[in-house]
Design brief:
Layout (H helix, E strand, L loop, with lengths): L3 E5 L1 E6 L16 E2 L3 E11 L4 H4 L2 E7 L5 E7 L4 E6 L16 H7 L8 E16 L5 E14 L4 E12 L7 H18 L2 E2 L5 H6 L2
Antiparallel strand pairs: 1-7, 2-10, 2-11, 3-8, 4-5, 4-8, 5-6, 6-7, 8-9, 9-10
Length: about 210
């Protein structure tokens, strides 16, 4: 299995079920907003019994649906989330069964947590994605409107919520000050619509109540 590595720089927002979408065409640098794309996502998150991945600010998941379905290892860094991604390939996992971690993923995590791994949460997400583009058609950011159903497998507790994410794309500003200005403008648009910067750093954290 070949892996791809990327850095996610994003902002998360808490919103109510009926909060209207912001006018993203008003975001500086955005010339057009693509038509919405619906995605049905189903992810299982895994960790060791003593939560070694959580202690290392690392998350492991297997997700189906969307353009990047597969196995993901996410590590929190000061710049953003460093993600290593492996495609599902010929993964024979039953959709309703707990997944078996591939050898390539185990090798990636060996120094942090040698296993064994078990599912700690399942997160299903009815996502609507919008590409925000500049005048040349470059992707400034992707905005997603997420309707989440999460199950904490440790406590057998299910929670539902709605949230937004804005993730910077290749055409976004490259320097820190310009990125901060872009996010500040996004925060203002979200606040005008009735949203607020999220109190939770991740869906997994919210699912587990941490």
């Amino acid at each position: 299995m070949s892996a791809a590595v990327s850095l996610e720089i994003e902002r998360k927002y808490d919103v109510d079920p009926d909060t209207p979408l912001p006018d993203w065409a008003a975001l500086p640098g955005v010339d057009a907003v693509d038509a919405p794309e619906a995605r049905a996502l189903d992810a299982r998150y895994l960790d060791t019994p003593d939560a070694r991945l959580a202690g290392a600010l690392t998350a492991l998941r297997r997700r189906t649906g969307g353009p990047d379905e597969g196995w993901h290892v996410k590590r929190s860094t000061p710049e953003g989330k460093l993600e290593t991604h492996w495609p599902l390939g010929e993964d024979p996992t039953d959709p309703d069964a707990d997944p078996v971690v591939p050898d390539a993923v185990l090798a990636e995590l060996a120094a942090v947590a040698p296993g064994p791994f078990a599912v700690i949460a399942r997160i299903r997400n009815a996502r609507t994605a919008y590409a925000l583009r500049d005048a040349a058609g470059g992707l400034v950011a992707e905005f997603v409107d997420d309707h989440v159903t999460a199950t904490d497998r440790r406590r057998d507790v299910e929670t539902t919520w709605r949230e937004w994410e804005l993730e910077l794309g290749p055409a976004a500003p490259q320097d820190a000050a310009a990125r901060a200005a872009l996010f500040a403008a996004a925060d203002a648009l979200v606040a005008a619509a009735g949203g607020r910067v999220s109190a939770s750093a991740s869906k997994l954290g919210r699912a587990l109540g941490v």
